[in-house]
Amino acid sequence: MQTAYYGLHRRRCQASQESLLGVLKALGAPVASIGDVPAALRERKQSLYRRIIEPVTVARDGEPAVVKVCLPSKAAGAPVTGRLELESGESRTWQWTSGEMPVVSTADVEGTHYIIKEVVLPDKLPLGYHKLLLEARGKSGETMIIASPRQAYLPPDAKDNREWGAFLPLYALRTRDDWGSGDYSGLRSLTDWIGESGGHIVATLPLLPVFLDNPYEPSPYAPVSRLLWNEFYVDVTAAPELDACESLRELVVSASFREEIERQRNNPAVDYRTLMSLKRKVMEELSRHLADYPVRFEEFRRFLKEHPVIEEYARFRAVMEKSNVPWTDWAPSLRDGTITENDYDNNARDYHLYAQWLAHQQVGDLSENARHKGVRLYFDLPVGVHPLGFDTWRFRDSFTLNAEVGAPPDAVFTNGQNWWSPPLHPERIRERHYRYVIDYLRHHLRYADILRIDHVMGLHRLFWIPRGFDSSQGVYVGYPAEELYAILTLESHRHRNVIVGEDLGIVPSYVRPAMSRHGFSRMYIMYYELADDASKTFRSVPRNSVASLNTHDMPPFASFWNDMDIEEKRETGLLDAENTGKEKRARRMTKNALLAGLRKAGLLRKADTATRAVLQACLSYLGKSRARFVLINLEDLWLETRSQNVPGTGEKFPSWRRKARYSLEEFCRMKDVRDILDMISGLIKKKNSPARRQ
Fold it and tell me: Quick check: 11 pLDDT over 90?
């Protein structure tokens, strides 16, 4: 049976009694003081042993499902009846006598003796989610059986072939046709160009909706929902209705409108509020006239019928806009989901319905086009959501709203980190058979070919910070990792997607073996893997990995090589004068080790220390490595020195806003960019040649 409360890992953090108590309260324990904990644990243990079976059971690779049955000793000799309802709708029934159920353990809980037996389902289960109902002498229970492959999906040729791709945040992508920020049409153009250049992957940051009004939070890692797409990236000019709407055509070609668009294009940073206002003005008008186009209107109605969550989302956003307060401050009936037409403006609701329809269509078209061109879309699934967003309102029982997810203090963030996202409740998501988790995975996997799981350690444990506590005063809370892995491997095979785990930073020793066991690709970031001892080479690149120089949370290569990121940290208050000096000395050792390793590998001449020469040597190293996927930050290729995000700086640094220095039309013709991509493409092709594989 499950332990009393999902393990609070006190040995791994310096949590106070108050923070431990705060996490227990967030979990729902009936405790007011630390003295109440023993009684709460006893009560919890009793409730766990009273249920006849666990809410969830995992069966791997067609092996027989083994279900533990917990019965009080007075009922342990009774036969057990089982009814299995397969996902397909087919049902099967069995009955087991006492002698057919071996005893695996016993327990005495508050005066009651329990016997735990095993029931083995005689039939091989098809992959899927199945429901088993058990009954024994008046006691009954239900478990969801996740029948899943042991490992995540890999393409048939993945054993021998390697692939390369490019990364750029979508907001940063500039094209000649955009309105001041990247959009789904621009991402399609980038995908086409990467495919034509011999690449196989296009990666970007999360494409989920965010708050761009009130509250304002443009971070792609604080989405309003993990179940929808971001309407900010809709290419309004691609909406079929626009050509048929004369008044809007006149608006978008008017001098004042074009002047504003030109201002947005010339702005080096994305002005989310202004640009969203421009797009919304057009989409609102289009939504009002949609009924004038019967064929499209019928498509729209079918879409809403197939995606009922979008109607709920549109009402949620419309209520929020009318009330101008977050849902946590709504009247009780609204907080609990009872919304009437008097609570919102119909035009606002219709806008959100229409905007989501366009976003879904354009992401779907993007995915279909990429697959047709042989390019994989690499999407990113954030570890959390905005605390005031749709998901926390609609799926409130799955979240713990009195705690926030973060990370404990380390060498970089000495006070710890608070990411402000409410964690999922580990027991409640099991009791609800992971419906929300499955839904947001399917939302991404339907269109992505590779999915990166942000903070993959969260499958095992998350650092909970009780609301109101300092970020250093958190507690690790454990999660049912094997069940979450089972869902991911099953959905991976159903959608034929590669799963990548973001395993950077402080990673518990058991995480990477679990990832390997379940066929997850890991990340190899050259910055992290460099030895600081010049007598040693850098660590080898694992075969089942996505290898790159850096990530969106790190400085671009030119900034790293010239210590500009250290100055950036000093200017934003992350480093004081003393630690700035220490970091520069450590950086010098790291760069010496890097140069020594590149020269030892024959990739860099002794006299070469120039930024571009070292960059090319580093990318050559990754291109020649065993990594299954090599990912290149496009901004590195023109020696960008400005970061996209500097964690921990808040408003001191304009994260998530900076546009790329060059447009797609410009950088795709740049010789320095083309030369490096041609080099990588040649190295990958050489590694993939039949002669090399023999």
Answer: no
